[in-house]
Design goal:
Layout (H helix, E strand, L loop, with lengths): L13 H12 L5 H20 L9 H13 L4 H20 L26 H9 L7 H17 L3 H5 L1 E2 L4 H5 L3 E4 L4 E5 L5 E5 L2 H13 L26 H14 L8 H16 L2 H8 L4 H4 L1 H17 L8
Parallel strand pairs: 1-2
Antiparallel strand pairs: 2-3, 3-4
Main location: cytoplasm
Organism: Acidovorax temperans
Subunit structure: Forms a cyclic heterotetrameric complex composed of two molecules of XerC and two molecules of XerD.
């Protein structure tokens, strides 16, 4: 744990010293937090010295310049945001003391961090998970979990859409925003975000998995099957399967299948989108299949597709790597 800064390491600006004493006594900050505040204000003092100005005469333009310098030096957007928070606190205190008329950090924001790419499985891993059969599990449980994987990966469903499916279509289910699967037509009718309904094709493997599951669905409940929940996927008490249960079962199944990455439902949705786009290059079709209202949301998968192409290039092209 970080210790309280020693007097030798404290900034020499008297206003900074007063502020640090204020936050130490009045706010009772933890020692580590106080150390971080001190380091951040030391950095600000160094920047101020570089433009030959005292801290209390810095303007927003100066702060923005300092942010640009930190960013070009490799500091992450999140790290800069934390530093700005410490600086903002100092100038807020200075304003209350009547030392500055305006907080120069007030409207300065850190650079936006790039959005991380959605995590998708490689094709081989996705197929391995879909083909996996847990021979040690009860047939009822194995049939259900296999059908869950096939719908998530084969149709790109959200986990909420999956657990919202009913075993049989009904006007009441449709009014209440619950979907269903038409096995004969090979279509899943789901209600996504904003209760927006869409239909997605259900492939042959998913149809077969669902048929196997439906043949066993009521088996453990015997005569009490009439009281089963109307959900397509149910738990061992006959009630609709929850999203949390799907997360837990999928994580366990991916580990049993030998995947090094713990898989969650949305990862299979990302994998579905990425693999369809790799094969078809049809961004509009992927948008419709995923139920995205805006195609810019779908375009993130083009970045995944480019990563795939880049890996193929690096592995296959004679000029991809320079000989040392």
């Amino acid at each position: 744990m970080a210790e309280v800064p020693s007097p030798a390491s404290l900034p020499t600006d008297p206003h900074v010293l007063r502020y640090l004493e204020h936050v130490r006594v009045e706010k009772r900050l933890a020692a580590r937090t106080l150390t971080l505040y001190t380091l951040d204000l030391e950095k600000l003092a160094q920047f101020a010295a570089g433009v030959n100005l005292p801290l209390l005469q810095l303007t927003s333009a100066h702060i923005r310049r300092f942010v640009a310098q930190m960013h070009s030096g490799g500091r992450s957007g999140r790290g800069i945001a934390l530093i700005l928070s410490g600086w903002r606190g100092f100038y807020t205190w200075a304003g209350r003391q009547g030392l500055v008329a305006h907080n120069p950090v007030q409207d300065v924001r850190a650079p936006k961090a790039p959005k991380p790419l959605p995590k998708a499985l490689g094709v081989d891993d996705a197929v391995r998970l879909a083909d996996y059969e847990n021979t040690g599990a009860a047939p009822w449980l194995e049939a259900r979990d296999a059908a869950v994987v096939e719908l998530l990966y084969g149709c790109g469903l959200r986990v909420g859409e999956l657990v919202g499916l009913d075993a049989v279509a009904s006007p009441q289910a449709e009014r209440e925003g619950r979907g269903w699967v038409d096995l004969q037509a090979g279509e899943a009718h789901v209600f996504g975000k904003g209760s927006k309904r869409r239909s997605v094709p259900v492939g042959r493997a998913a149809v077969q998995a669902l048929q196997a599951w439906l043949a066993l669905r009521a088996q453990p409940f015997g005569a009490s099957s009439a009281r089963l929940d109307g959900a397509l996927f149910i738990g061992q008490r006959g009630k609709r399967l929850t999203a949390q249960s799907v997360w837990l079962r999928l994580r366990q199944r991916s580990q049993l299948a030998g995947l090094t990455t713990p898989v969650h439902p949305h990862m299979l949705r990302h994998s579905f989108a990425s693999h369809v786009l790799q094969s078809s290059s049809d961004l509009r079709a992927v948008q419709e299949l995923l139920g995205h209202a805006n195609i810019t949301t779908t375009q993130v998968y083009t970045r995944l597709d480019f990563q795939h192409l880049a890996k193929v290039y690096d592995a296959a092209h004679p000029r991809a790597r320079k000989k040392s």
